[in-house]
Amino acid sequence: MATGDNYRQEEIDRVKTWLEQVVIGLNLCPFAKHPYQRGQVHFVVSLAEDEETLLQDLLYECRDLKHMSPKDRDTTLIIIPEILQEFDDFNNFLDWSDALLYQQGWRGVFQIATFHPDYHFAHTEGHDADNLTNRAPLPILHILREDSVERALELYPDDPETIFRRNIETVRNLTFKQKRELFPYLAFNASEINQDD
């Protein structure tokens, strides 16, 4: 088993910084702040060097989360430093993770959000600012409890669709200096990014 007791604090610290400064700091996820402040977010580094082992780690973390109270652990971020560094490989792995949820009967129990240093949406070019909403310092599988997501959305005052649109507007309005400060692990070319500074 490559997760659990095996972890590297450096990778966890990098992801926590991203979560604090980008996800929470820019309010890209209005539901992230309170679980994080309450210590309900679990960070684990998978030491998997192949996809089969990573899938086993995902299975372990889902089972672990399922048997814990949401008050103790509401969500888990699996940080992946060794493999899936190419976004296409990472994206292809998601078919395996979806199949795992289906096989275990966890559809409607868990959902998996994804982040990657080279994340890009299908409708974008790689350098488009829109992709920053899902760019993290390392590949991440974020296991979410479906019921927690549903409760959060019920309390959200606006149409949930506005979250995505607002996030796109937020990252598009970042200055070049802000992008370099918030995403130091990305190589920005000023001529490729829409600038307003």
UniProtKB/TrEMBL annotation:
UniProt organism field: Thiomicrorhabdus heinhorstiae
InterPro entries, sorted: DUF1415
Pfam families (alphabetical): DUF1415
Name of this chain's protein: DUF1415 domain-containing protein
